[in-house]
Amino acid sequence: MARNDDYLPLFETKTAKGLIPFRLFAASMFTSICFIMVYRVNQIQKPAKEEEEALLGRKWTWIGMFIAELWFSLCWILNVVVRWKPVYRVTFKDRLSKRYNEKDFPGIDIFVCTADPIIEPPIMVLNSVLSVMAYDYPPEKLSVYLSDDGGSDLTFYALLEASQFAKEWLPFCRKFKVEPRSPEAFFHRAPKQVEDSAMVKEWTSIKKLYQDMKTRIQTTTKLGRISEEIRKQHKGFHEWDSVSGQHDHDTILQILIDSKAVDNEGKRLPILVYLAREKRPTYHHNFKAGAMNALIRVSARISNAPVILNVDCDMYSNNSESVRDALCFFLDEEKGHEIAFVQFPQLFDNLTKNDIYNHFMRIISEVEFAGLDSYGGVYYVGTGCLHRRESLCGKKHSKTLKQNLINTRYRKEEESASVLEEICRELASCTYEDNTQWGMEMGLKYGCPVEDIISGIDILCRGWKSIYYNPERKGFLGLAPSTLLQSLVQHKRWIAGDFQILLSKYSPLLYGHGKIPLPLQISYTQYMLWAPTSLVWLYYYVVPSLCLLKGVALFPETLNPWVIPFLYVFFGNRAYTLGECLCYGGTLREWLNEQRMWVFRRSTSHLFAFFDNILKLLGITDSTFIITAKVDDDHEDVSIKYEQELMEFGATSPMSTILASLALLNAIIFAVGLKRLIEEYDKTLVTNPFVLQIILCGLLVFINLPVYIAMFLRMDKGRIPTSITCQSFILALAACSIIQMY
Ligand SMILES: *[C@@H]1O[C@H](CO)[C@@H](O)[C@H](O)[C@H]1NC(C)=O
Ligand SMILES: *[C@@H]1O[C@H](CO)[C@@H](O)[C@H](O)[C@H]1NC(C)=O
């Protein structure tokens, strides 16, 4: 092992700039919040004036506002804790390569998980696999495992094609240092990159190879079955002879590239393994956690690398040096021994300029996760993450036992592929985990839809630390949904999972008590409170508007000094988020889109996530609340609109109805309120108690503009269907008239 005498660290941690202004701002906000609280409490205690006496429920509405504001303040405090001192990591790959010889690098086992050949088309899986096979890393140290929970021979076929194509693709990537190394992404943006004339020729020929392969795979996928001709290519297809269904089959395990295969230049290729673990209707398969655990066992027998990289099949590696970056953390002499996993941000490839559905979540990935990192523990988000095998397998961290990745024996004795396959089939069987600690103490945890997050928290509770690494050039990119509904449904799933953790025994406040730092426990809780916050938010969304209609004032009058803290908290916070977005490279329109998506998500995704969990808790089956997003098949059309940044509503779903009803309700009330304001202009503007309510209502109307446009002006398929518009009108008018009568 070649080592420098001076032990320069392999990575560096920097604290974010601008913390002092932020903390001053936070202090001023806190003061204003206190003023608001004082005002509310005073007003609630005050006996109501004569004319208000008649307004039943005024007091209760005020108490509601008070509770809502108290709740928002709590959330705000959590938010401040998260961003108290974000840190950023910088790696030194040059020091790494100086200090360690390439042949001493630890092996990396890469797990790619796929679950359904329809939702996750084989060609996408293939690109993901090729991009990680082509890492700039000694290929004999890489092993790629594909877990196919769909048990589909179409996916297997794509992987077989990948194993052939890799023989050309890997030397090509090496020779011209191409980036990114997913062929689809590379050829998509390549024309600008091809300057070198030697490259042009090879570029053309390899592009043709890729296109031909893509056509073959897509034809087969369309056909839905493997033709006889293809079946003859590999013995592995025979394994499907005994498959009786997606959830009822033996383990299918094929080593497509074994440890002796070479590419067209005679260099070794990474090992490539296809695994569809055994499935039986009588056994619970535990979703992705089950697949990961099977992969951990199988890979331990085949390559047993000390580092495991996990990527979802809809993501590809956008940087061939990410593995080296991660090693800078694991191999750092001083701090490396306590690091269990290195998490890269989960980002998307095909975003529009202003990120209309706020997929990027710039602030979460740039600021908040950096904040979690400063407390020593970012989440494991389930993709784009490199783990130390032993921490994933349940080992506790101990200071005395410095686990050295370099000296770990990497590959077990060479056995022939067919013998290995036979042994490994057993490891992936349904019964293997019976009466073992798998899914509890070992591997990923079972029994929760967000098993990744719980498993990550559990690893931290066992004394390990995690690192969030968010370089300028992103390590992994995925595909973002391109309609509003898909995006909302995806968020609902995430938020529901987060809320479920809060209700489970893994709630960070209880489970993490004494094991992870308090600020980290608090920071985690922030995300888990999003679901219940939606109720409070809905109150603030609807009640001030309804009260405006009814003539109940909820805020101080225009010239009352108490109005200042309200204005400061509201506009100050907006201004702060805008500043944050611009500082981290966003645009004004992106910020607006983000604000809009917050409104939409809170009134649908978060709300549904809340009720989902409550119904489950009450023992009412969760199937009552399934949302079906009917997605338009017209992809061409959808993606054009996506590029034009036109929101795609299009489908009928309870979510659309809620969005449309709330938008209409606010529009109607805003019109009424404005009319009243104009009528009473001369006498009461200065002491008008409704001005704040009108402003709030007006802002909501402004945020909802795309909804009105989609209801009344747009003619394309992405508009809100007329049936939903009608329903929403009825709902909004009903709400108004009930309030009027009452
Ligand atoms: C992905 O990689 C390419 C170069 O290969 C780079 O130009 C691009 O900025 C990267 N994308 C992101 C989001 O970092
Ligand atoms: C982004 O990817 C999705 C999924 O493949 C696709 O439907 C959509 O059209 C893409 N959008 C753009 C702008 O490329």
UniProtKB/TrEMBL annotation:
Signal peptide: none annotated. It is a multi-pass membrane protein. Its main location: membrane. InterPro entries: Cellulose_synth, Nucleotide-diphossugar_trans. The chain crosses the membrane at residues 20-39, 60-82, 657-678, 690-713. Gene3D superfamilies: Spore Coat Polysaccharide Biosynthesis Protein SpsA, Chain A. Keywords: Cell wall biogenesis/degradation, Glycosyltransferase, Membrane, Transferase, Transmembrane, Transmembrane helix. It is found in: Endomembrane system. It comes from the Eukaryota. This is Cellulose synthase-like protein E6. The lineage of its organism: Eukaryota, Viridiplantae, Streptophyta, Embryophyta, Tracheophyta. The gene is LOC112492131.
